[in-house]
Amino acid sequence: MHYTFQFSVVVAKLPYLLDGAVLTLEIAFLSFWLGACIGLLGALGKSYGARPIRGLINAYVIFFTNTPALVQIFFLYYALPDAGILLSPMTAVVIGMTLNSGAYLTDILRGGIVSVRREEIETAQVLGMSGPQMVRYVILPHIAKTIYAPLSNFFIWLVLGSSMAAVFGVEELTGRAINISTQNLRTIETYSVIAVIYIGLTFIASITLALVGRWAFRVKARIF
């Protein structure tokens, strides 16, 4: 069978797809920053909390890092209504990805916290630094250099992982591609175009994160 590619029918929908790409980034940003808040609390709790608190945090991390994020979102969206809690598809996706991100970021951030050596803090104390000065000039730069690359990679993963939202009818980039290919039956062309858009999104995100890392933390993050 001879197949003739017709990209023009997909290119005509480019503004519609780019609007979906914006929603893709919004999902990734929300999930990342909300997950980072959970991860910071989890990391501090695992590092300095009492034993019961550490146990609860470990249970949370083990559960969410050993079950697929998609399954977790399915649970939120389809099981919670039985308990009287009805979430919109977008809310369920963001909450699910946030809880999943929080578990991974707990371990990433804890890795940064424990990487600060006692000798560095003692040296700062000998130099007469105050608490805020130690945090500003010793602790934060050290933690940033340790975890910046993993955090950057995790954000890129969230950009791509947000495509799970399409399963629940959220019209982010993949969701809109499904709509278009269903209408025009140009599946190959549609998914080729959104693949290029995803590459563009991750490339721009990688460059931005690398520049921010070099400017704010003097971290030479790798681009791809």
Automatic annotation (TrEMBL):
PROSITE patterns cross-referenced by the UniProt entry: ABC_TM1
UniProt topology in membrane: Multi-pass membrane protein
Annotated CDD domains: TM_PBP2
SUPFAM superfamilies from the UniProt entry: MetI-like
UniProt-listed Pfam families: BPD_transp_1 (PF00528)
Secretion signal span: none
Transmembrane residue ranges: 20-44, 56-80, 86-109, 147-170, 190-212
Domain ABC transmembrane type-1: 21-209
Domain of life: Bacteria
Gene3D superfamilies: MetI-like
Subcellular location: Cell inner membrane; Cell membrane
Entries under InterPro entries matching the protein: AA_ABC_transptr_permease_3TM, ArtM/GltK/GlnP/TcyL/YhdX-like, MetI-like, MetI-like_sf
Keywords (A to Z) from UniProt: Amino-acid transport, Cell membrane, Membrane, Transmembrane, Transmembrane helix, Transport
Family: Belongs to the binding-protein-dependent transport system permease family. HisMQ subfamily.
Name of the protein in its database record: Polar amino acid transport system permease protein
Species this protein is from: Labrys monachus
